[in-house]
Write a structure and sequence with these properties.
alpha+beta, OB fold (Dihydrolipoamide Acetyltransferase, E2P), de novo design (two linked rop proteins), five-stranded antiparallel sheet, binds zinc ion
């Protein structure tokens, strides 16, 4: 049986002498793995199908529950993600997170489209912000939405409070008077509000705020999802 999927290539692992096993995030069937044969040879026609961040229509031969790539037509070219080191790590971090938050056989179209948007935004603009937006959305889709509303302990609005905390187990920002969790800055809070398309205060959107927001997301991710994100750590370190 043959199936066609629109997919983003998340990961390529070496397999046999000349083959690779690809982890694909598809719009149609969620995450799946597919072998691509002979792709390590210099002349391989399907070499680009195993490139990082490849967005393409993959033709897959299905036998039992195994897939093999038999054809691939590129839909979009995220070339800039492979030539700029910061964009490369941001896109790698987003790919790692997408792989960790999706499961074979489960619908993942929201995360697929969010990742597609993140790659597009990373090519043309601020890769840190695009990564923050993607991580918060993907976490939210996976049942780990961050809570930005009033303080869950006392009900006070958080908008004008300088001293904030973030409680990792509940994923909520908390006022300084209630003081549960780790200290979080107002810039972190506002960067995350912006990334979630909520009302925010522009004066608190700073490059430092993006780094802090990514650190918070890394901690939160580590607590909620049993997966390491080495590219995210490397990206934060380079910022
Ligand atoms: Zn409170």
């Amino acid at each position: 049986m043959e199936v066609k999927v629109n997919a983003l290539m998340l990961r390529a692992a070496d397999y046999n002498e000349n083959d690779k096993i690809l982890t694909l995030l598809t719009a149609e069937y969620g995450k799946l793995t597919a072998a691509v044969k002979g792709v390590k040879k210099a002349t391989a026609k399907l070499k680009f199908a195993a490139q990082p961040f490849c967005f393409a229509e993959y033709v897959l031969a299905k036998s039992g529950d195994r897939y093999t790539v038999t054809g691939c037509t590129e839909n979009g070219n995220f070339y800039d993600l492979r030539t700029d080191i910061m964009k490369f790590y941001a896109a790698s971090a987003a790919s790692e997170a997408a792989a960790a938050l999706t499961f074979e056989g489960d619908d993942a179209h929201a995360i697929f489209y969010a990742l597609l948007r993140a790659f597009t935004d990373m090519c043309s603009g601020d890769e840190s912000f695009a990564l923050i937006r993607f991580l918060t959305l993907a976490l939210s889709q996976s049942g780990y939405a961050i809570s930005f509303g009033n303080c869950p302990k006392c009900g006070k609005p958080l908008k004008d409070i300088d001293s904030l905390f973030f409680d990792i187990p509940s994923g909520a920002f908390i006022c300084g008077d209630c003081g549960v969790g780790a200290r979080a800055s107002r810039v972190t809070y506002n960067v995350l509000l912006k990334a979630n398309d909520r009302q925010y205060e522009e004066e608190y959107i700073t490059p430092d705020g993006e780094k802090r927001a990514l650190r918070l997301l890394r901690e939160y991710f580590a607590e909620k999802v049993d997966a390491r994100l080495p590219a995210l750590s490397e990206f934060v370190r380079m910022l």
